[in-house]
Specification:
single chain, 404 residues, mainly alpha, 54% helix
Length: 404
């Protein structure tokens, strides 16, 4: 398995280009960065990373990333990679605190970000906590500091991805996993929404027409998924309970799952087993039952960087990173306080933002003439020229094609 492909493509760019991005990038390989490590994969669809890099340059140029803007984007990716090279150890002068032990890697990061190493180290290894009306500085362990560093890298990459998406939209706009975590829940929610639209368009509307004409109708209960959507996005559904847990000072996975199972104990779409661990629960999705591990749900759903980390990144000399995070800081400053604080906090969570975008997509689809193409996976092993009839029939059934 590889990390994001763009990193490998960049590392296989010509040395002259790599040097123009950052002098420290010139002689690096994937083994130079902890986030990448070693992999034997160097071709995708019979094309090398070097060949794909040439295509990426052309593609990025079509949406406005060329010259200095292209260099700035690639430099921002280098900052993400360099954050992964930071290592942490307990502070030798204070057992409760931590330090960045990879001082050489920290120096490289500081040159990329255009700020002093001490500023970066303080932002990542210490945390500002509000006590009453005052802010106090709390020390962080080496493990917590590493998590903070990784969260910053993830946030920067997410901002770059979002910026590229916005640029593409502006340029083109017309007039079961082994462990199912938070991201998989969001993917499955999107699939449920699309399935619901599909059922309404192809079955519910036909059923209602038959009933108006006095024709015997068919049962759609086995493919209609309103109940699971209610469980996920209802007033006290999964997303609502998770958002509330994210607001609590000590919100955690066990508390979230306990509340979910208590509130929805009568829901036939929520799967509760005696052998479940305190952070595990299952949902009967339209295609199959999925068991979730909620241990990272609260962290993943919180889309807010700590105040001191955000202030640090806003000082970065990379214009792309600085502008993106300055916007985040401005939006955070506008968030309501007092009795309206809870509403403002929940509107900033990942699942709330994701749900808003999915609903907007569904509303847009209503304005268009929809045609559906169903892709059926022939087998679970991704083997060529092999069809597992049980696998294919299960997919046909959940898609409603057998009913049709």
């Amino acid at each position: 398995e590889r990390s994001f492909h763009i990193f490998y493509h960049l590392l296989n760019a010509p040395k002259e280009f790599k040097a123009s991005v950052w002098d420290g990038l010139k002689d690096t390989t994937q083994e130079s960065f902890s986030y990448l490590g070693s992999t034997e994969i160097n071709h995708i669809d019979d094309r090398s990373d070097s060949q794909l890099w040439e295509e990426i340059q052309i593609s990025l140029a079509t949406i406005g990333f060329e010259g200095e803007r292209m260099i700035s984007l690639m430099r921002a990716l280098c900052i993400v990679l360099q954050l992964g090279n930071q290592t942490f150890s307990p502070d030798p002068h204070d057992a409760e605190g931590s330090i960045i032990s990879s001082q050489d890697e920290l120096l490289k990061l500081s040159l990329l970000m255009g700020m002093e190493p001490t500023v970066i180290e303080k932002a990542i290894t210490k945390r500002k906590v509000k006590a009453g009306f005052e802010w106090i500085e709390a020390k962080m362990t080496a493990v917590d500091s590493k998590d903070s560093c990784d969260a910053l890298a993830k946030k920067i990459y997410a901002q770059l991805f979002e910026m590229l998406t916005e640029s593409i939209n502006e340029s083109t706009a017309p007039t079961d996993l082994d462990v199912n975590r938070f991201e998989q829940l969001c993917i499955n929610y999107a699939n449920e929404r699309i399935q619901h639209r599909y059922v309404v368009d192809n079955f519910i509307s036909v059923k209602e027409e038959y009933e108006r004409e006095g024709i015997d109708t068919f049962d759609v209960s086995d493919i209609e998924n309103s109940a699971v959507l209610k469980l996920l996005e209802g007033r006290m559904g999964v997303f609502s309970i998770l958002n509330d847990e994210c607001i609590r000072p000590k919100g955690n996975a066990e508390s979230f799952v306990y509340k979910l199972k208590t509130i929805h104990r009568d829901s036939y779409k929520l799967v509760v087993k005696k052998l479940d661990r305190p952070w595990e629960f299952g949902i009967k999705h339209y295609a199959t039952t999925v068991k979730y591990d909620a241990r990272n749900f609260v962290t993943r759903n919180n889309d807010q960087l700590p105040k001191d980390v955000l202030e640090c990144v806003c000082k970065c000399t990379n214009d792309i990173i600085r502008s993106r995070f300055e916007t985040i800081a401005i939006e955070r400053a506008k968030q309501p306080t007092g009795i309206r604080r809870k509403m403002g906090a929940t509107s900033a969570t990942v699942c709330t933002k994701f749900r808003t975008k999915i609903i907007a997509l569904m509303e847009f689809l209503l304005t268009s003439k929809i045609r559906y193409i169903r892709c059926i996976k022939p087998n679970e092993n991704m083997s060529p020229h092999t069809t597992d009839h049980l696998v294919t029939m299960r997919q046909l059934g959940s898609a409603g094609l057998v009913k049709a």
